[in-house]
Amino acid sequence: MHSWLGPFLRVLKDRFPAIDVELTVDLSASLSPSLFSRGLDLTPQSGPFGRQISGGVDLGEFPQVWVAAPGLGLQGRALSLRDIARHPVLTHARGTLPFEQLRDQIATGRLVPLRYLWVPDPLRFRALYDAGLAPSYVVRAAELVQEVARVHLAAAEDQEKRSS
Fold first, then answer.
1. Alpha carbon 48 to chain centroid distance?
2. Where does the record place the LysR substrate-binding domain (predicted)?
3. 54 FRET partner, CA 20 to 30 A, in 69, 96, 109, 125?
């Protein structure tokens, strides 16, 4: 999401210059209750989505990858979980899907080589809003974030094809 948040905020400001955007960055688990209690108008957030709301647009699935500092010397070879566990691993917050996937992978107790380049499932994003009560500009803002996210997904896919 960090790759398209700035472009989305610029497009939103261009289309709706009189609207003040108050940005709240938090986990989806924290954003959802605020959306349902009408404390937030629009939440671009990652799944899983515990509750349904009347309005929303798909923003796509964004892949996740393992990243290590070059100085760790982990590139160019198959790694075991033991190899990885020798270093601090920064993950998503507890209770999130990527954290649980990593925890489950490690919890098997088998320290197997990660020859297949295991990565967490892609994060699915949606822009959620209350379709019955949201002003029309909130609905349009959800559509704008969808457009911006699609542009960034397409650019990432093009880059991946060129590097393959």
1. 11
2. 2-141
3. 96
Domain count, the chain: 2
Tell whether 135 and 102 lie within a shared domain: no
Same domain, 78 and 126: no
Q: Do 136 and 56 share a structural domain?
A: yes
* Secondary structure (3-state) at 60: strand
pLDDT band at 147 (very low <50, low <70, confident <90, very high): very high
**How far is Cα 100 from Cα 107, in angstroms, rounded to an integer?**
10
Question: How far is CA 161 from its chain centroid?
Answer: 22
Provide the CATH number for the domain around residue 10.
3.40.190.10
**Region 119-148 average pLDDT:** 85
The Cβ of residue 44 has, within 10 Å, a number of other Cβ atoms equal to 22
Q: CA 53 to CA 20: how far, in whole Å? A: 24
Residue 55: per-residue pLDDT: 84
> In which region does residue 34 sit, left (phi positive, over 0), alpha (psi from -120 to 50) or beta (all else)?
alpha
